[in-house]
UniProtKB/TrEMBL annotation:
Task of the protein: Part of a binding-protein-dependent transport system for aliphatic sulfonates. Putative binding protein.
Record Pfam families: NMT1
Family according to the record: Belongs to the bacterial solute-binding protein SsuA/TauA family.
Keywords, alphabetical: Signal, Transport
Residues in SsuA/THI5-like domain copies: 140-289
InterPro entries: SsuA/THI5
Signal peptide: 1-30
Annotated protein name in UniProt: Putative aliphatic sulfonates-binding protein
Length: 506
């Protein structure tokens, strides 16, 4: 059993640094802030320091991190009455490339609230139980999740002859150790008959280092979390050979808080949850604009941000704590225990004792939101409306396609892949080009880059697939052929030409 939390007032030294993204400037910088206590008195005013550790590059944290920070949403919701009257707030934000450094600083009392993925979250919770004394870490809300593991991926250099995990035997693979991607990689290798300890050389590398290593040919493959499995292919120097969705294991990014901070300032934690809920609303109301903002704040191209967090995206923006989320955490405990990454035996069921959704519930109450309403909003965040070409209603999001014209504010939605392809010549005539095109896996609904997908045309319907083998199985059943994006374009254009030639003249 876990120890009951007791109130503590630690002296906290805060090191504030924000890692500049390597893929913008190819360099990094660090800044620091001085130290002070969580709450100090200055005349008649009390100063409360709020320290939040996020991961700007990991866009799953955007609605709890960069968006809250840059839109000043926490400041908007912080309490100012009662014991918080005449309080001066000092909000310290720090950004990291992965979760473990946030845990280290939380245990050291330098961060109060941390945002991280499922594997780092589990390590965070367990380390606090082992090293936190009377202080625990508590899981208080979810930022984004995938019920099947989408977001984690394995990529190789674009010109590599490696096309599957089986081809990695005897090769070097880097991954951020202790991350969700690390767990995904180890499971995927084992599932494909590869011994992670003997058959491959595993190297611990952060996303920036892993990307550079791929570019320069220093490694054969790199496994990573959101958004790098899509970002590196989008930038043209890598290709994806394995998607975490193939594991079928749920994954998430969530929010943890030090129990002493939450016990002392529950209204501040609730205020943070309100800020996160508002960031969710802002994103859903205008995903293209906020994706563009996140590109400026985090250096991740807006097209990739939208791919993950937009309607029918790879990740679901869902702040609640549901069974799929607890299962992700339980699975992380099991996997980390099997791999010897935790120092002692931990019952996966213990995770429920680390969860407290009272702050989220209170935030919803104060914002006049019900749990069912928030959940329904998350579940219904899919492609809808009318087709940009035919004006027909979009009924099946899994068969829908999207196109973002370079320089335009809004994404075009289509009821089918065929309609999107038919729109391309019209855009070319207008001197417009697509910065990105999205389709969805016929069977799983995963959002895919159109140019990196496989297709099968059966009559008027065009089905897209992430994996060539899935496309081939579907093609064999219908007696059709598999095509790449150029091939499906040629087929659709040829059919249109035939239909135009047969059409009666007016």
């Amino acid at each position: 059993m876990l120890k009951k939390s007791h109130w503590l007032k630690p002296k906290i030294t805060v090191y504030f640094f924000l890692i500049s993204l390597f893929f913008i400037s190819s360099c990094s910088s660090t800044t620091e802030s001085g130290s002070s206590e969580d709450a100090t008195n200055s005349g008649n005013e009390k100063v409360i320091r709020i320290s939040i550790g996020t991961q700007d590059q990991v866009i799953n944290t955007a609605v709890g991190g960069a968006t809250v920070r840059e839109k000043k949403l926490l400041e908007k919701h912080l309490p100012t009455t009662g014991k918080y009257e005449n309080v001066e707030y000092e909000i310290e934000w720090s950004s990291y490339t992965s979760g473990p450094p946030i845990t280290n600083k939380m245990i050291a009392g330098q961060i109060n609230i941390g945002l991280m993925g499922d594997f780092p979250t589990v390590i965070n919770l367990i380390k606090f139980q082992e090293e936190g004394g009377d202080v625990e870490s508590v899981y208080i809300g979810t930022l984004a999740h995938s019920p099947n593991g989408a977001g984690n991926a394995v990529v190789v250099p674009k010109g590599s002859e490696v096309t599957s995990l089986a081809d990695l035997k005897g090769k070097s693979v880097s991954v951020p150790f202790g991350s969700a991607a690390h767990g995904m990689l180890l499971k995927a290798l084992k599932d494909n008959g590869i011994n992670p300890q003997e058959d491959v050389e595993l190297i611990s590398q952060s996303p920036p280092v892993g990307g550079t290593s791929l570019r320069t040919g220093q490694i054969d493959a790199h496994a990573d979390f959101v958004p790098f499995g899509e970002l590196f292919p989008f930038r043209g120097f890598a290709k994806k050979i394995f998607d975490g969705a193939q594991t079928g294991v749920p994954t998430l990014h969530g929010i943890v808080v030090r129990s002493d901070f939450a016990d002392q300032y529950p209204e501040i934690v609730t205020a943070y949850m309100k800020a996160m809920l508002e960031a969710n609303q802002m994103y859903r109301e205008n995903p293209e604009a906020i994706s563009g903002d996140i590109e400026e704040w985090a250096g991740i191209e807006k097209e990739v941000v939208y791919m993950f967090l937009g309607p029918s995206g790879l990740q679901t923006l869902d702040p609640t704590i549901r069974e799929v989320h607890t299962e992700a955490l339980k699975n992380s405990i099991t996997t980390l225990t099997e791999l010897g990454k935790v120092n002692r035996s931990v019952d996966p069921e213990d995770v429920t004792q680390w969860i407290d959704n009272s702050y989220l519930k209170q935030a919803m109450k104060e914002m006049d939101l019900s749990h069912d309403q928030v959940l329904e909003t998350a579940n219904s965040y899919v492609i809808s409306g009318e087709d940009a070409l035919t004006k027909e209603s979009i009924e099946n999001p899994k068969m829908a396609a999207q196109l973002w014209v370079k320089g335009e504010e809004k994404v075009m939605n289509f009821a089918s892949v065929s309609n999107m392809v038919k729109m391309l010549p019209k855009l070319r005539e207008e001197g417009k080009v697509a910065s990105v095109m999205f389709v969805h896996d016929r069977e799983k609904g995963w959002k895919l880059f159109a140019e990196n997908s496989y297709y099968v045309k059966n009559g008027e319907k065009v089905s897209a697939f992430l994996l060539e083998k899935d496309a081939q199985e579907f093609a064999d059943e219908s007696g059709k052929k598999v095509a790449d994006f150029k091939g499906i374009q040629q087929t659709i254009y040829a059919q249109n030409s035939e239909q135009a030639a047969l059409a009666p003249s007016k």
